[in-house]
Write a structure and sequence with these properties.
two-stranded antiparallel sheet, three-stranded antiparallel beta sheet, 88 residues, 19% helix, alpha+beta
């Protein structure tokens, strides 16, 4: 059984598929407590991804969002095991 990792799931206004972002564990804990405030204010925040990168979210364009633990984040933006760039 694979390890569960935290991720942010964003449902953007006008987009049919959700966006999955692999989060740093500490970032996920912090964000979970601030998510309602960010959604209510439509604020912008910079998040630390699981691979150590940064990801900016403008919550004014987010319809719904939640933090969850997932078994696989291989397709999530910012996942350590996800390939980057446009290589073949």
């Amino acid at each position: 059984m694979s390890e569960k990792r935290p991720g942010l799931i964003l449902h953007l206004a006008g987009v049919s598929q959700p966006l999955h972002i692999a989060l740093d564990a500490t970032e996920a804990e912090t964000l979970d407590g601030r998510l309602a405030e960010l959604m209510g204010s439509g604020g912008t925040t910079l998040l630390t991804t699981a691979d150590g990168g940064k990801f900016a979210v403008n919550f004014a364009h987010v319809a719904t969002a939640h933090v969850e633990s997932t078994r696989s984040d291989s397709n999530a933006y910012g996942a350590p095991d996800r390939a980057t760039g446009f290589g073949s």
